[in-house]
């Protein structure tokens, strides 16, 4: 038997566990992270860049995937035959002149994670999480989620004949859009008489005592897939490190993953410096921003308020400690965006043909603030992580453009113009 | 000045026109197609396969696109700098054991065109159509569409600073999901007091007399982009031609494009035989199927009825003649699928983790029929074109799985299970 390259390690007390152990937290109660023996990866695969380049040439799965192209950095102990993939990743790194102009950054890139198979960045984490569950021989996987997480989990689990997925949802708080994906993928969907936190609590308790594998974001294997966002972006830039990554922050798994991947690239010598990282929160749910203002000396929880950026409406982020240590390590900053700022920023990207979710608007609004106060410079190279597809948020978009979002004065109203079915009237209105 | 490689040619009388001419129909009234000088392409680019392989290695646009990778075959006269792209195409060719089993075809592939930037195959045609409009210096582009076409047109036009798009929609017949994309991309959206046919009629008349460039499916440049679906699929199969392509048919531009691309590959010697093509229609809108039953001797129009496959609810297809000649040339067949058949077939793909639209369900149901009557064999290699993402049809999916589609008895009911927020009750229900 080959010695394993990876282990799980507590982020607080440092205690380690075998990766085959079904466990989501350390005995001390804190989160675990997957830690790889980078020296061994470096010596076993002395020419990783060449390997990754080579894989770009092929249409074949799994290595066409923008996660598994970097297999050795993701889950090196996972056998290739256990990989469950849809060719996720390979998302476009948009560089659009109109967006650059609007934000005053010459070299601005939008990494559009909405172009994943289930339309959000969650696919990257789930291909890793479900593959690992498959490797462990799990028959059941579960999560609590009203949105992207359950869609992605159910979609990947559906590819494994021997696996069933279970989704915990709050009764009557889920739209058809949110329900359609899990039930179509065959997930057993529990509609519980409680709120989201109640669902989360129940799924964790059940996973602890029954053979249901937990795929919420405390699962550290998901982070390994998610970190490919940053790896792929830097690869797309031909391994030239941008000055900044800007990323929306809710439960904080995404920023943690981004930082972890970049740090590993740096430690392996695949990149020669670290970028800075800007994490941005919605003002309605800004505990990490508030904590950052105290130099992360205070651990702050808030009661999250209403926000269009519903996927990051989280008052007590699970991955807060991972995230704060990443922000510090990357000479990073945190910012916040109010509802008007985030919707206006989203509208700029949409208008330029890149349809993004309101959370991506949070990141773009943060970029604008940091640029205005000179923290980010016009000449900096900046990559903004856009987390989901705008098409998942039709109501929000229509309400913005027709002036029906409460308390907001949209600067880019674009309501349909009602006209009679008359040639002359249309020509006159169009003024071609 | 270099002589041009392509011209427009009437599909009926054969009259030719320069490609720079803004024209959608021949003077005789019939449709035009873009015709390339294949001998010249063959001699100017003697090693096309090598060129296409080489482009796979790069992340850079435009040639990372699954359309523009094949630039020489798409619009060879279009200068590279005029290409308007989002890196469309590169959609996964799914091969899923559970789907193969369900349809009784060992080598079954699903080409998932829902994985395009605006979530349908229309992006392939629109990157070509908008690029050509850009090349012609058009300031305004327009179309009538309640769905995928307007989303794609607006998204691509939004990438060109000097271009405005205009969408003609029937008043009050458009859902927020259908409205959100065009208005977000900044399209001028006209909501007209008429039905869809009224919108189509008006946009054609206005485009004829004003500088508004028509991007509905009679635009022959769109077909050139669309045909990359088949080219890319065959390339993904390492230029080994499958026995069958199966494709849903509505306005019939898609099947025409598929056939045109494959024919050109054959004529250029890039493939050594032609596949057969099966076109499948919804029973509620089956004029080409009925016409096929007469050996295409009769040109049949129907009044299209209600169908879950709303995007192909067309009783009088624009590209009927192109399509029938393709079906004949490819030793093809036509089939039809009723509502139950198409929704059941869609549910099979969804359940295996490949979320497709109801139109894709039509194609899959057709496959099943042709397989059952032995036309398609178990040992055949089959590629099914799936045209849009299932996430665009949340209501249809939820209604199917909860048993709320009128007159249908779903075989795969998967309604949410309502439970109290009680540990014991959940464990008992899950029976883990």
Characterization of the model:
The structure is a homodimer of 432-residue chains. Chain A is α/β, with parallel strands linked by helices. Helices cover 38% and strands 15% of the residues of chain A. Chain A is built from 17 helices and 14 strands. The first copy, chain A, has helices at 38-44, 48-56, 71-74, 97-103, 122-135, 148-157, 176-184, 196-209, 220-226, 228-236, 253-267, 287-293, 320-329, 339-351, 358-372, 394-401, 423-430, and strands spanning 6-10, 16-17, 32-36, 93-94, 107-112, 140-144, 164-170, 188-192, 212-214, 244-248, 276-282, 333-337, 381-386, 417-419. Chain A has a six-stranded mixed sheet, sandwiched between helices. A four-stranded parallel sheet of chain A has the order 8-7-6-9, with helices on both faces. In chain A, strands 2-1-3 form a three-stranded antiparallel sheet. In chain A, α9 (220-226) packs across α11 (253-267) and α10 packs across α11 (253-267). Chain A is globular. The N and C termini of chain A lie far apart (73 Å). The mean pLDDT of chain A is 96.
